[in-house]
Design goal:
mainly alpha, Arc Repressor Mutant, subunit A, two-stranded parallel sheet, binds glutamic acid, globular, 46% helix, Rossmann fold, 3 domains
Length: 472
């Protein structure tokens, strides 16, 4: 049998997600178990949403967890480049090939027409999909449109009849009527590929044997299968892992659970504990043994044992597990961990900037800056709510502030300040109403150093999560 090659293909569009760590762990365990290779491919074809910092954080977080890949943008490999944005020319060549063999077509429809089409279909209670207007343009018409330089996208020509099917290692045979599939866009008008084209082409060229990814991609796979067939390529095996869920069984979301790996790292969750915990999401070592190392997981790992009942990401359980691993640390490990992760020189230097003027003796640093290290005691709504406002307004104000902060990735004082000012003016609150609310929730104190600087130092994860925790 040829070498097992699996990949993780994160899109660097936000915080490094626990879901990415989960998928990586299962790919890693499968690769190691079978003497195969794990490939990291960064899927950054969404130019607007992709961020270099997010890409770096994904890599740092996965390394922190000890989930090291064998080929990737940082370490190279035989099948690079490993960043999709550096492979655009390859994707374009493949779109051309599909055009040549009649498996794809150019679509010149304007976004206005498409919006009208969608609105009409919605109005009639129909599934929204492209109506195929450009599917069979005559040669002369096509020539004319091309010479007029009208912009176009390349769409996949999904067969109108029949079914597309594939076999999922844990879900069995899955099939869908082609009629239900949309003529998916493969290449956008700016020449960038969409996920579907880039993903299939790169998986093939990188010789991926097993595509192990999250459940949310199940519905895309029939389209991918059509592409494999059109190119005449052998298909990899497909495995769609069950989605992580919040306690109420909804898909894991930051509204109900911290999802950023940075958050867990900042809170002193140990990588071994998180990996062990993620290893229990849809898989188990045995009925008796919940605590196991990644090496033990690898030894027993079998994809066919994955069960599909949605695994619950239960913070209490993770904390319990972490407690177990903390107890196992020896004094050196403990001292090193706390110094490097919590009291790093970098962090202390930042805190110095805001606290040094307030200290008479240095030991006051612990008391005056405690909120930089651990959550303040919960303050009640009564204490927080300004006399001029209602409790619901306080909650609404914090919720809308979170929406702004969630999309702020450059976590620096000036930007935080800008957001706070803009938001406050937008909702028409006075500084003396607004600022104490935030200060109390974040620091548990009525006085603190300048708020935006405090928020900057506290960090993106911790400050947002403290607000979120307070609201819920
Ligand atoms: N870029 C996709 C993601 O971020 C990859 C999905 C896949 O593994 O095919 O989830």
């Amino acid at each position: 049998m040829s070498e097992i090659r699996v990949r993780i293909a994160p899109s660097p569009t936000g915080d490094p997600h626990v879901g990415t760590a989960y998928i990586t762990l299962f790919n890693y365990a499968f690769a190691k178990k079978n003497g195969g290779k794990l490939i990291l491919r960064i899927e950054d074809t969404d130019e607007v949403r992709s961020k270099e910092s997010s890409e770096e954080q994904i890599m740092t977080s996965l390394k922190w967890l000890g989930l090291q890949w064998d080929e990737g943008p940082d370490c190279g490999g035989e099948y690079g480049p490993y960043k999709q944005s550096e492979r655009k020319h390859i994707h374009r060549q493949h779109a051309d090939k599909l055009l040549d063999i009649g498996a794809a077509y150019r679509c010149f429809c304007s976004s206005k027409r498409l919006a009208e089409l969608r609105a009409k279909q919605k109005e009639q209670g129909l599934k929204t999909k492209y109506d195929g207007k450009c599917r069979s343009l005559g040669d002369a018409e096509l020539e004319k449109l091309l010479s007029s330089r009208k912009s176009y996208v390349v769409r996949m020509k999904v067969p109108k009849e029949g079914v597309s099917k594939f076999h999922d290692v844990i879900r069995g045979d899955i099939e869908i009527e082609n009629d239900l599939l949309d003529d998916q866009i493969l290449l956008k008008s700016d020449g960038f590929p969409t996920y579907h084209l880039a993903n299939v082409v790169d998986d093939h060229l990188m010789k991926i044997t097993h595509v192990i990814r999250a459940e949310e991609w199940v519905n895309s796979t029939p389209k991918h299968v059509i592409l494999y067939d059109a190119f005449g390529w052998e298909k990899p095996q497909f495995v769609h892992l069950p989605l992580l869920r919040n306690a109420d069984r909804s898909k894991i979301s930051k509204r109900k659970n911290p999802i950023s790996l940075n958050y867990y790292r900042k809170r002193g969750i140990l990588p071994k504990a998180l990996v062990n915990f993620l290893g229990l999401m849809g898989w188990s070592y045995s009925a008796e043994k919940e605590i196991f190392s990644v090496e033990e997981m690898i030894e027993k790992f079998d994809l066919r044992q994955i069960h599909l009942g949605g695994p619950i990401f239960d913070l209490k359980k993770l904390t319990w597990m972490n407690h177990h691993y903390v107890q196992k640390m020896d004094e050196d490990e403990f001292a090193d961990y706390v110094r490097e992760e919590m009291f790093s020189r970098e962090h202390l230097k930042h805190i110095h900037q805001v606290l040094f003027e307030r200290l008479e003796t240095l030991d006051q640093f612990v008391e005056k800056g405690f909120y930089f290290f651990s959550p303040p005691p919960i303050v009640s709504m009564e204490e927080v709510c300004p006399p001029t406002r209602q409790p619901e307004e306080v909650k609404a104000m914090l919720n809308s502030l979170l929406e702004h902060l969630d999309v702020l990735y450059v976590w620096e004082m000036v930007h935080i300040q800008e957001i706070i000012d803009k938001h406050r003016t937008q909702i028409d609150w006075k500084p003396k109403e607004y600022l104490p609310v935030l200060r109390l929730i974040l620091t548990g104190r009525k006085d603190s150093p300048p708020l935006s600087k405090t928020i900057e130092i506290m960090g993106r994860e911790i400050s947002r999560q403290r607000i979120r925790d307070w609201i819920t």
